[in-house]
Amino acid sequence: MKFFIDTANVDEIREAASLGLLDGVTTNPTLMAKEADKGKTFRQILEEICELVDGPISAEAVSLDFEGIMREARELAAIHKNIVVKIPAIPEGLKAVKALKEEGIRTNVTLIFSPTQALMAAKAGATFVSPFVGRLDDVSSGGMDMVAQIVRIFENYRFETEVLVASVRHPMHVLDAALMGAHVVTMPYKVLMQLFKHPLTDVGIERFLKDWEKVKK
Ligand code: E4P
Question: 9, 28, 86: which to mutate for ligand 1, most atoms within 8 A of CB?
């Protein structure tokens, strides 16, 4: 299972990369806007991220028409070979996904809230689909149920498209995604660090260190 980090903050990305467990990065306009407040341009942020992580880096196109998406996608893909273009699950978006595949540009179809949106994105040739589980949970719908259905559909038809679980809020989303066989989970830095946490690990370390004090010479 691949771990991506869902942030445009280069300090968090550097920390996460230093763990040796990071396979890629996802960004979106909201995450970029938080960093742009610090005086960096969108392009500078992306270039810095590409220096830090050698894996798929998702950057979002914001046009909603085919020509605009194609233009943005080509510009983004030209920044670095690891850039994957995020495109919303709308008809113009999926037309672009198909055309970009023919040009060899990888895509991540985003804002997926139903298994049939994911099915269409896979048929269009998306590299990744991003079901947003937390935002679905927020409106009392089962985010992880959607992921289970997408994984099943992709297995049924042997799609090569990878299921990238997004809008992750807590470690249970990561656990459930792993149990369902999702290919990738993208998570905020906070959730990545929460995965390490267990009170018995802390208590165990404290006791071992105390006992070691008694035996060391
Ligand atoms: C996915 O790639 C998105 O960037 C992200 O997971 C959205 O998460 P949010 O619902 O916490 O904004």
Answer: 28
Nearest one of 91, 134, 89, 132 to 107, comparing CA atoms = 89
Question: Which tokens go with 153?
Answer: 């559909």
HEC assignment per residue over 153-187 = HHHHHCCCCEEEEECCCCHHHHHHHHHHCCCEEEE
Contact 189, 16 (CB under 8 A): yes
pLDDT digits (tens, 9 = 90+) for 3-60: 999 999 999 999 999 999 999 999 999 999 999 878 889 999 999 999 999 999 999 9
pTM: 0.96
Ligand 1 mean position, distance from CA 200 (Å) = 31
The residue length of the chain stands at 217
